[in-house]
Design goal:
The complex is a heterodimer of chains A (about 525) and B (about 400). In chain A, about 45% of the residues lie in helices and about 10% in strands. With about 525 residues, chain A is α+β, with helices and mostly antiparallel strands. Chain A has a 5-stranded antiparallel sheet, with helices on both faces. In chain A, strands 6-7-9-10-8 form a 5-stranded antiparallel sheet, sandwiched between helices. Chain A has a two-stranded antiparallel sheet with strand order 11-12. The longest helix of chain B is centred in the last third of the chain and has 30 residues, at about 310-340. Classes of the chains: A alpha+beta (about 525), B alpha/beta (about 400).
């Protein structure tokens, strides 16, 4: 009901927008006509450069059109213009039918495409290629010599690990595909390119391993990509929300990661990835709460250490979700649940505090959110200073002034720390939002409210699906064998199968050959 | 408006209209840690109250221990010699009335969720504790795990003790009873268990407490017969009752003397298991108590080497005799002096010989229990003798 209401409030019926940039003409054999079309189309776009010349210095007229700044000038000058203007003098007959083939034979650039429609020409031009029009020829050549400035492969910022590779995705889709390809030298690794966004024409690569992924999941992904109709995909965050299963859920049903090894791990389990141009975050789906709680590092360190770390992580995120709510409920409604000495200590600490525990908790959480948001905006070194000033000095001063109780500071601080145990940023945000929901429930109904709130979250999660896979898998529906990779992580030798809830075509990762004994050599 | 919306509306109303009704922050509650209940002194009968009464009535004095939060919170324990708690006392014709009258003495609402101990005065206990227990058991806040004690003298005197080792008397008493493992000389039942027993039979053994300078001494027990205090059991007798009740967690038995070959040996009892077998003969109940004890020798004064197996078995025999004597003594005392079954023999009989129990149950305490015969066998084992030869 609420869903419907929101939809009705914020959406209005609109006619499907006609793609206004379509020209729908073929390339004309008359060069002047082509150049005229280009010039009308790109009127007032002064970075579009048109260089007219005669092939071989005196032959047929031709023109190279490109956008300055998106091309490597070195390549254009040396490989294209020089070749066509100087080396082409050997061409004697200018009216032969395979003139374009001759020209192609002379250009020493790998990425070369013949195009016939003007729309393609315009797209390639905007995508950073040079387009060569030749008089008397019905086709044009799109020459790939992109060379704009971009950020290289750097260390991951949001998903740092101690053990594991240090490269992360950057903004260029081809570089990102390469990062995945390097790790999977498998012909079954498929990369299907989509051009999404009416205006942005953003390249989106659908990446999957053809003989592992469940065809149903793949089909669903393709269907959803086909339905994306937006003017611009500025970041993969747009795409994530457009193809997500449930737009109103606080939980993200897809995972965004900046780590290539995480993507490869997902692909091998039978997921697919969407690499979106101009975004260092790659989308991985289907996803479950379970996978959102895993860090790639878990698989690199020993299984026993990893299991303990995961237990800590699960306990920590549970605390991040419930601790302030439980504190409010216990202190304001159900003090008999606290052991007597602890209850008296808390009561003594709270004695003289002017606010009720609920207000205190909300104010402190608000302070924390202020600090967190300020920490993101502030430039690096200042951010740390503000963290110290805010966290320690304000906290300490507030306690000394008797405005908040020291117990509350402990609760809020440990909640803040615990929330960063969650390895996926989107889940961190979700937990933060739900924490406020639970705090409200606790403020209204006490412990009963907290348990009801938890129940609501659990029921919602149980109904939530990501590309047909339940978000609570493998706990619900229960798949005991997939427990090998949940809170516990089995040793690699025991994790033979891929998770069954993803219905992989190739079910096994490890062969049955005995690989468990290396130690008996004399 | 659709049906579903109407339902949702009601649901929200239910939450929002009734929400927060019992919200009260922890420091706004007066946490009552211990309660003492006595009869009020005759002079406490105020004329004003008397007018309200319809005829003669009992007046109670209720003494409460409330921690001073300001004192507890500060570093270094707050100092000052007036202690961490405030003991206040009030009189009234019912306990509920007293509790609500406290309202205008402490602006915080009294909260019994952390009450650890309730002490009933001897005088009141001799008259009957049924009404008091009824009030306590009816109270929604009072935990079933708290401890009920009978004081030797006035309960108010116990409440006024400031234990040297623990700031709060209630916590002190509760922990004393909860964690008593080494001596075994205290009845360790919680309020819930005691109430169950009292409702079933009207009889119970409750721990005894008496005030001393810097401590409240817990030891021995009060014998409750038909909701009334009829007498006391000493500490050693109490240990024997705990042994029979199968609840003992430890205790020391001293046997022999230093002139003998065994020397004077302290036997520390670690675990014990008592099984009661009931049978009948000549219209009388016969109980066979089989007590299996395991323990260590923790001290030997004089005597020979404990590496001698024969010596050990003679020590075991002495321990058997000693424990058997203790158990038989206390049972005889209960049979002849108090004529009350507080150790659950009636329950054992009802489980093992239900038909026979149905015949005797009306006169069990007065006639049949005092005439029942008891056979006690104790089998003690020595598990460790220590390293010194």
């Amino acid at each position: 009901m609420i869903k419907r209401l929101i939809l009705r409030l914020f959406s209005r019926k609109c006619e499907p927008i006609v793609r206004n940039s379509r020209i729908g003409v073929r390339i004309s054999p008359v060069l002047a006509k082509n150049l005229h079309t280009i010039k009308t189309l790109f009127e007032d776009a002064d970075d579009v450069t048109v260089r007219e010349f005669k092939v071989g210095g005196k032959g047929t007229s031709a023109a190279v059109v490109y956008i300055s700044g998106m091309l490597d000038n070195e390549v254009i000058n040396a490989q294209l213009l020089k070749t066509l203007m100087l080396d082409a003098r050997q061409i004697k007959q200018w009216d032969e039918p395979d003139l374009l083939d001759r020209i192609k034979g002379m250009i020493t650039i790998g990425d070369l495409k013949e195009i016939e429609s003007f729309d393609d020409a315009v797209y390639y031009l905007l995508a950073g290629k040079a387009v060569l029009f030749v008089d008397t020829v019905f086709k044009a050549l799109a020459i790939g010599a992109q060379g704009w400035e971009q950020r290289g492969v750097e260390q991951p910022v949001a998903e740092a690990v101690i053990r594991g590779p240090r490269d992360s995705f950057c903004e260029c889709v081809t570089t990102n595909i390469t990062l995945v390809r390097q790790r999977l030298k498998d012909p079954s690794l498929k990369i299907k390119m989509y051009l999404l966004g009416r205006r942005s024409r953003t390249a989106v690569a659908l990446v999957y391993i053809a003989d592992i992924i469940d065809p149903g999941i793949l089909e669903e992904a393709q269907n959803r990509l086909d339905k994306v109709d937006i003017d611009s995909l500025t970041d993969s965050g747009y795409l994530e929300q457009l193809i997500s299963d449930s737009w109103w859920s606080p939980f993200d049903t897809v995972q965004a990661t900046e780590r290539p090894d995480e993507v490869v791990g997902g692909l091998l389990e039978g997921r697919f990835a969407l690499i979106c141009d101009n975004s260092p975050f790659v989308i991985l789906a289907p996803t479950t709460i379970n996978t959102l709680m895993h860090s790639p590092e878990d698989y690199y360190i020993s299984w026993s250490a990893s299991t303990i770390i995961r237990m800590v992580r699960f306990v920590g995120s549970f605390l991040a979700l419930t601790l302030p709510a439980v504190y409010i409920a216990l202190v304001s409604y159900n003090p008999e649940m606290i052991p007597t000495t602890l209850a008296l200590t808390i009561a003594a600490a709270r004695d003289g505090i002017p606010f009720p525990a609920v207000t205190e908790a909300f104010v402190m959480e608000l302070m924390l959110e202020l600090l967190r948001e300020a920490g993101i905006r502030l430039p690096g070194p200042i951010g740390q200073t503000i963290g110290i000033v805010g966290g320690i000095i304000i906290g300490d001063a507030a306690v000394r002034a008797g405005l908040v109780s020291p117990v509350m500071v402990i609760i809020v601080a440990s909640t803040a720390i615990a929330s960063f145990l969650i390895p996926t940023y989107s889940l961190t945000i979700t937990v933060r939002n739900l924490r406020f929901f639970l705090m409200t429930m606790a403020a209204v109904l006490g412990l009963f409210g907290v348990s009801m709130g938890m129940l609501v979250i659990l029921v919602h999660l149980a109904t939530l699906k990501s590309f047909g896979v339940s978000m609570l898998s493998p706990w619900s529906p229960l798949r005991i064998r997939a427990f090998q990779d949940t809170v516990i992580r089995f040793p690699w030798l025991a994790m033979k199968a891929r998770p069954r809830y993803l219905h992989p075509q190739d079910p096994d990762r490890l062969s049955d050959r005995r690989t468990d004994q290396f130690g008996d050599h004399p | 408006m659709s049906n579903l919306r109407l339902h949702l509306l009601f649901l929200f109303c239910a939450v929002l209209l009734c929400g927060c009704w019992d919200m009260r922050d922890i420091e706004k509650r007066a946490n009552i840690i211990a309660i003492g209940i006595d009869f009020a002194e005759p002079e406490a009968m105020e004329s004003e109250t008397e007018k309200l009464l319809q005829g003669p009535a009992i007046m109670y004095r209720m003494t409460l221990e409330i921690p001073k939060l300001r004192k507890l919170g500060k570093e270094g324990g707050g100092g000052g010699d007036d202690g961490f708690t405030w003991v206040l006392s009030s009189t009234g014709t019912s306990l509920g009335q007293i509790s609500s009258l406290l309202d205008h003495r402490i602006w915080r609402s009294p909260f019994y969720g952390h009450t650890k101990a309730v002490i009933i005065g001897e005088e009141l206990a001799r008259e009957g504790i049924k009404d008091v227990i009824d009030y306590l058991h009816r109270h929604r806040d009072i935990s079933r795990r708290m401890k009920l004690l009978i004081s030797n003298g006035k309960a108010k005197d116990v409440l006024e003790v400031k234990p040297a080792i623990e700031p709060l008397l209630g916590v002190y008493l509760d922990n004393l009873i909860e964690f008593v493992t080494l001596s075994g000389r205290v009845q360790t039942k919680s309020f819930g268990e005691v109430v169950q027993e009292l409702v079933e039979t009207g009889n119970a053994l409750l721990p005894r407490v008496r005030p001393a300078e810097d401590e409240a001494v817990v030891g021995g027990s009060a014998v409750i017969k038909n909701w009334q205090l009829v007498g006391w059991l000493g500490e050693v007798e109490t240990a024997a009752t705990v042994l029979v009740q199968n609840r003992i967690k430890g205790g020391t038995v001293i046997v022999g003397n230093r002139a003998e070959a065994t020397g004077e040996v302290s036997y520390f009892l670690r675990t014990a298991k008592t099984s009661i077998k009931a049978s009948q003969g000549n219209g009388q109940a016969i109980f066979r108590l089989d007590i299996q004890v395991e323990g260590d020798i923790i001290e030997q004064i004089g005597g020979g080497s404990l590496m001698d197996q024969q010596l050990l078995s003679s020590i075991e025999k002495m321990v058997n005799e000693r424990l058997r004597g203790l158990v038989l003594d206390v049972i005889r005392k209960l049979q002849s002096e108090f004529r009350v079954d507080v150790l659950g023999f009636g329950r054992a009989l009802s489980k093992q010989l239900p038909e026979f129990y149905l015949q005797v149950k009306d006169q069990w305490d007065d006639v049949y229990f005092p005439e029942a015969s008891f056979q006690v066998t104790v089998e003690a084992k020595i598990r460790r003798i220590g390293v010194v030869d």
